[in-house]
Write a structure and sequence with these properties.
heterotrimer; A mainly alpha (324); B alpha/beta (354); C mainly alpha (301); B: 354 residues; alpha/beta; D-Maltodextrin-Binding Protein, domain 2; 2 domains; 13 helices; C: 301 residues; mainly alpha; MetI-like fold; flat; phosphate transport (chain C); transport (chain C); membrane (chain C); Phosphate transport system permease protein PstA (chain C)
């Protein structure tokens, strides 16, 4: 009996317990991998701490007046980012309204058997290519194509409905509307991708049951599929909003860089990210501190929105996995 | 699987090869650099086109020296000059007293006026390709944000034969620290008594009203005016001329409406009375019937004593050329040639550099 | 059998539903209308992509595929009122900084993903790291630049290295999440077989998990590289810009994205044409990496 198993035990070539050296390598490599994973946590913490630390002098200097002030005056040392906060939130909200609706529509288009599988893949690729285009290229395109395209429509809206605050000024060139539209185009793939995911998670039998009861296609979508996928779609919208808040370059090129607060869709404005992009390169010591404070404000807003979106996404996954 | 890994490794090799190829490039230009002297400068965008042209032309005269110039705005130019990170600075506002106080006494400073130029108001009004006239108090108020629309009664008054659309006035201003801003705000403070106290104030960087679009550099202002309907912005004359932007005719101190041009520019320079020792002369509001109201010299900031004598000699020779042959090129490009009196004083200052 | 006959004609006593599709019925009309809207939305969403590609080819292509392609690809960026010139330093700068970023983020990301996906996917560290990696994907790119400015630029000045580090911060989450996804898909059977033969966990990872998960990992890497090449916000005040070819890593460096940003704000026709050309080159680079991600990422298990 011993002889039978002897050959397998002695050689160490094909199989056998690991040698001491292999144990050591194993331990070493596993600790390296652990350290790397830990480094991610350290990195995020370091980012938060560093930006907070750099903003401290400015927080001490300007306090909460920074968030309510409306001028950015380097020579007098008065800094306020209320117009920028307004611009950030307003442009992102507009982008969410447009990009969100389109994103969900595309997700429905892709997952609810409107087109065959091949076409759906092609269309999916188109949307992914849209996501791949860099922000600066969208900015350039916006100046050359979008603004001239919007001018006639904006003029008509302003002339006929000028009393309405949203159309209160004319579109001179760069402004809130072109910026929000480009932003919508940029977050559309994000919203679409996460919504597609959400729709895919719905168990097939739910759809079958709805059709079995005689609903039309859209009744099934609106009354059954959408409510079931609602938390996933909500996550998509929140994460899309988070992406819009942080977008920099296309906005810096298209929003007009004017530090004012206006409801009009066509007036120029400014956002936190474009303020940072425009003023940082040539800023002196005092201005850098104020900009760090602005960076902290942006960080706080985007961090909160992203964490909220991810939490909703976790909840969705747990909801569906639990059901199964 | 094998073809995928070999594809990936072929890609990595290609990127590495490209990197090496690119690495080879600077080696080539570095050896060329080793035999010639490099003189770096940075500063105002106002005279940048001229300095670039001069560097091109002068390279034919003296092949042993290469000049490089970065247009970062007068403020940054002065800052870099004080830090010593450039060999010469450039500023349309020379240096203020507080900046002069920061100069390292071992280095010293000479401010050499190289040329002069006009600051113009270029505009973009659909339907008005040329011929906008703005009276004195009016253009100050437009830039202060007090006039809302182009068909305002005051503008219509100065321009009875133009049909002005009901379009919002969008002012385009400088975000960066700019000598051009200093020149125009210095002038506007002379016109508008409230400009300095309750208005934006004088300086290389001022607090423009919130509705103004803020951009970088003379070229940024030109670009923004080009693409925005109803925009009006201030920039150097050469930019507006070479880019064919419509320029507003302004009313000067004598009450006449004057278009910017070589003659009106020279008339403005001629009104300067005395020239101080450090050659810092501002002309905030030239008198004279034909004088264009907004003019300024622009200076190159050089050390009084250079540690490297070769650089000092190269700079002196180049600037000397600029003050002689360079002046005709300046006039060609739309800058104002220096009056002889000024050239003499500038050469004296140049001679003091060691 | 029952006496009911559901297929007979409708009687007045008990109305029966007509089960055939009726196009003009209000509910069907509503459904058809919404379907039309959805088709419209889908087509509208595709328009910007084709418009951008069209503009790139027309505006950028005339210069790139024109007479002087060598000059455009290797020449120095022109200044102010100059004619000619090219985008050579920008191409090299982008490649170098993306290279630095890859060298930092790819090993680190894969190692972290090994821990998250294979070694210990349910531990507290793994859960936190995974969550934070997802948060980092939505991180505004300009804040990566601000962070690197505070940490590196203030001490060591503007450099290509600083730009590379900022890009690495942005690439890391993509690499980690894609690699983790790929490695956790490896069938447990394969790993069990390796354990059965006496492999340590490290050996299982190196000999079974990594080779099997390589397509997915490569997909993530290619997508991360594509994304990093297109970034400009983090480079604005870390690598700044330069008009010359890079001669050492510790100096400001040109990049395609910053060149496009700078030149698009200039009024000179020459610069604007070069901005379009640079955009075309950049989008080509990004698309190539995206397509590679697709090809390399086809799963083989």
């Amino acid at each position: 009996m011993e002889k039978l198993f002897q050959a397998a035990n002695t050689s160490g070539s094909i199989s056998g317990p690991p040698s001491a050296r292999e144990y050591f390598n194993d331990r070493l490599f596993r600790s390296i991998a652990l350290t790397s994973a830990f480094l991610i946590i350290v990195l995020v913490a370091y980012i938060l701490w560093e930006i907070g630390r750099e903003a401290m002098p400015a927080i001490g200097e300007y306090g909460l007046g920074f968030v309510t002030g409306t001028t950015w005056n380097v020579s007098k040392g008065e800094f306020g980012v209320l117009p920028e906060i307004w611009g950030t939130l307003y442009s992102s909200l507009l982008a969410l309204l447009i990009g969100g609706v389109f994103g969900i529509a595309i997700a429905i288009f892709l997952t609810q058997d409107f087109i065959n599988h091949r076409l759906a893949t092609v269309f999916r690729t188109v949307i992914e290519m849209l996501a791949a285009i860099p922000s600066v290229v969208f900015g350039l395109w916006g100046i050359y194509v979008l603004i001239p395209l919007l001018k006639p429509g904006a003029e008509w809206l302003h002339d006929s409905l000028g009393w309405f605050p949203l159309f209160g000024t004319n579109l001179s060139g760069p402004g809130m509307a072109p910026a929000a539209l480009v932003l919508a185009i940029m977050i559309l793939p994000t919203v679409a991708a996460i919504s597609v995911d959400a729709f895919r998670r719905i168990p097939y039998k739910v759809k079958e049951a709805a059709y079995g009861m005689g609903t039309t296609r859209w009744e099934a979508i609106l009354k059954v599929m959408l409510p079931t996928a609602s938390s996933g779609v909500l996550a998509a919208l929140v994460l899309g909003f988070g992406r819009a808040l942080g977008e920099t370059m296309a906005l810096a090129m298209l929003i007009g860089n004017a530090n004012q607060i206006s409801l009009s869709l066509f007036s120029p404005a400014n956002t936190l990210a474009s303020l940072l992009a425009s003023n940082f390169p040539e800023a002196g010591r005092i201005e850098v501190q104020a900009l760090m404070y602005a960076a902290l404000v942006l960080l706080a807003i985007t961090f909160l929105v992203n964490v909220a979106g991810l939490a909703v996404q976790q909840y969705t996954i747990r909801k569906f996995e639990g059901k199964k | 699987m094998k073809y995928k890994t070999s594809l990936a490794s072929a890609l990595a090799a290609a990127v590495a090869a490209l990197g090496l190829l690119a690495g080879g490039q600077p080696a080539i230009s570095a050896t060329a650099e080793a035999t010639e002297l490099v003189v770096r400068g940075a500063g105002a965008t106002f005279p940048q086109p001229l300095y670039q042209r001069w560097m091109q032309e002068y390279a034919k005269v003296d092949t042993g020296v290469r000049f490089s110039y970065e247009g970062v705005g007068s403020g940054s130019g002065v800052k870099r000059f004080l830090e010593g990170s450039v060999d010469f600075g450039a500023s349309d506002a020379a240096m203020s007293d507080s900046e002069l106080a920061k100069v390292d006494p071992k280095r010293g400073v000479e401010m050499i006026p190289m040329t002069a130029g006009m600051v113009v108001l270029a505009y973009n009004i659909p339907g008005v390709p040329e011929g906008l006239r703005l009276s004195r108090a009016l253009y100050a108020d437009i830039l202060a944000g007090k006039v809302g629309f182009w068909d305002d009664a005051r503008i219509q008054e100065s321009n009875p034969d133009l049909t002005l659309p009901h379009l919002a006035i969008v002012t385009v201003v400088r975000r960066d620290s700019s000598g051009t801003t200093y020149v125009i705000t210095n002038h506007l403070a002379r016109i508008d008594p409230d400009w300095e106290t309750s208005g934006p104030g004088i300086g290389k960087r001022v607090d423009w009203p919130g509705s103004a679009m803020e951009v970088q550099g003379n070229e940024g202002v030109a670009r923004r005016v080009q693409i925005t309907d109803g925009a009006i912005g201030y920039m150097a004359y050469e930019f507006a001329k070479q880019l064919d932007l419509p320029i507003a005719t302004l009313q000067n101190k004598a009450g006449n409406f004057v278009e910017p041009g070589p003659l009106t520019g020279q008339a403005a320079l001629a009104s300067a009375e005395e020239i101080p020792e450090n050659l810092r002369v501002y002309l905030p509001d030239p008198a004279g019937a034909d004088a264009y109201p907004i003019v300024s010299y622009t200076w190159l900031l050089l050390d009084g004593r250079y540690p490297d004598p070769a650089k000092a000699e190269a700079l002196k020779a180049a600037l000397g050329w600029g003050l002689d042959e360079g002046q005709t090129i300046a006039a060609e490009m739309g800058y104002i040639p220096l009056p002889d009196r000024m050239i003499g004083k500038a050469k004296e200052a140049l001679g003091r550099i060691r | 059998m029952s006496q009911l006959d559901l297929t007979s004609q409708a009687l007045d006593i008990r109305p029966r539903p007509r089960l055939q599709y009726q196009a003009l019925e209000p509910r069907a009309l509503k459904s058809g209308f919404l379907t039309g809207l959805t088709w419209l939305a889908a087509l509208l969403a595709a328009v910007p992509l084709f418009s951008v590609i069209y503009m790139l080819l027309i505006q950028g292509g005339t210069r790139l595929f024109g007479a002087d392609i060598a000059e455009v690809l290797t020449g120095l960026p022109p200044a102010g009122f100059e004619m000619g010139g090219g985008i050579g330093p920008a191409i090299v700068g982008t490649l170098i900084m993306v290279g630095i970023a890859s060298a930092i983020s790819i090993p680190l990301g894969i190692l972290a993903a090994i821990y998250l996906g294979v070694l210990d996917s349910t531990s507290k560290i793994a859960k936190t790291a995974r969550f934070l990696a997802k948060v980092l994907t939505g991180f505004p790119s300009i804040l990566a630049g601000v962070f690197v400015y505070a940490v590196i630029v203030i001490r060591f000045g503007y450099s290509a290295t600083a730009g590379g580090v900022a890009l690495a911060v942005l690439m890391l989450p993509t690499v980690v999440l894609a690699a983790e996804e790929a490695m956790s898909q490896v069938p447990q059977r394969m790993k069990d077989a390796a354990y059965g033969m006496g492999c340590t966990r490290t050996q299982v990872i190196w000999k079974v998990v990594l080779p099997t998960g390589l397509p997915g990992i490569l997909t993530g890497v290619m997508l991360a590289i594509a994304g990093a090449s297109g970034e400009s916000a983090p480079l604005l005040f870390t690598a700044l810009f330069s008009n010359y070819y890079i001669s050492e890593l510790a100096e400001p460096t040109a990049s395609l994205s910053i060149l496009i940003y700078n030149f698009s704000g200039m009024p000179f026709q020459n610069q604007i044409e070069l901005a379009w050309t640079a955009s075309l080159v950049l989008v080509l680079i990004v698309l190539v990496f995206n397509i590679l991600a697709r090809i390399l990422g086809r799963p083989k298990v």
